[in-house]
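Bug #2210: token dump truncated for Fe2OG dioxygenase domain-containing protein?
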Amino acid sequence: MATPEYMRVQLNTLAGHEYRRVSTAPTRPATADEIPVIDLEDMWFYSSRSTVMLNSRGTPDAAKKRIATAIRKAATGAGFFYVSNHGIPDRVTDEAVSQAKRFFQQPLANKMRVHSRSDPLGNGYSPLYSSFINRSETKDAKEGFNFRYLTEYDPLHQGPHANPDPTRAPGSSWTWEQQTRNLPGFNEATIAWWQSCLELSRGLVRLFALALDLPEEYFDDITTYPGSDGLYICYPGLSSEEAKEAKKKEDANKDKDAGKKDIDVGIGSHTDMQCFTLLWQDESGGLEVLLPQTGSSKRDSDPVYEWVGATPRPGTLVVNIADFLQRLSNDKFRSTVHRVYNRKQGARYSMPFFFGFNYDAECAVVPTCVDETRPAKYAPISCGMVGPCIFFRVYRYIPSNTLQWRDERMQLARSVPRPQANS
Ligand SMILES: O=C(O)CCC(=O)C(=O)O
Ligand SMILES: [Fe+2]
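Reproduced locally. Full output below:
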């Protein structure tokens, strides 16, 4: 029987279920035009202590403009790009990667001691198959370990001039820190990686502001206690039999979806929820992005999409736009569907970092993305509401962890004066 050329992929969005017509052709690598590498020029970094973005060479304004223009192009295209020379030192990344591997390679009982269910903010370990991000696919074949925003470690609120608002610090800490002491260096490496991602994100959010034709500081006031969810992920490898079989099918190209339906998805087809995601991935490959097929017309009411590989590029991080930024940009920037398949024998490791605005900052579509012909499509909403909303609309329930976490943050937020949101 002939393999069908298309299949339907079901997605969960703020608006409920959406469907895409997707080619069953094997995933091909993205071209440099589709997912470009944007050079942040070595010294683009955001120094929380001096609250300026520095660049060691060239004319900062011209360089910023050039980078912002490249970001705009990528954000309105695939919604994915790589950043090189991003300023996170290799030793910080390498240490985090090796500690993440050590954590996952421990006996299950050790990992269960820091189960995310026993943490009030849902931080810690999530076992294999505990998430099911896309109900029309398989459960997610991955283990995770997450660490959400903590004022105590935010470089913006440290140092001699720091003046953090005590009501903003949630009552709990990273409770797992006590339980991971058996892994020397784990806590330090995780904190350093999380801080580096946070600083880079505060730099990037300024470049995103410029890319939206807004003043560079536009989002500064609403990124003082931002959504900053670090995550280590381990996607277990295939057995040698499975790997051989998958390779055979791929080489022969006789099964158009290259054996994927025989293995579980690492993380199902989804979009990210906050503003943008930074992602370190190892060299396994397997991250796939759903793009309109070349030649498929945007005017077509049911365009064809295809899976395209975001090939690992050592030394870079992947950046992708998430739902909240798409919403704020009135759909000008794209939050693009992606998924992971680990089709290798060895485990695949990755480290996403999800960045969003302060949970209580209610944000409207930005003024540069509306005019008389393009009114705002969306009402103001806060980043803290997006996650629970998606769960509720799609599944009609909100996981208690999420609810508790959201409520705690909202309660804290209500007890202090509202920050000056610029939108
Ligand atoms: O592991 C990856 O490469 C991507 C993970 C991802 O998409 C996510 O956690 O949202
Ligand atoms: Fe994702």
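Output looks complete on our side. The CA atoms of residues 38 and 390 lie 31 Å apart. Marking as cannot-reproduce; reopen if the truncation happens again.
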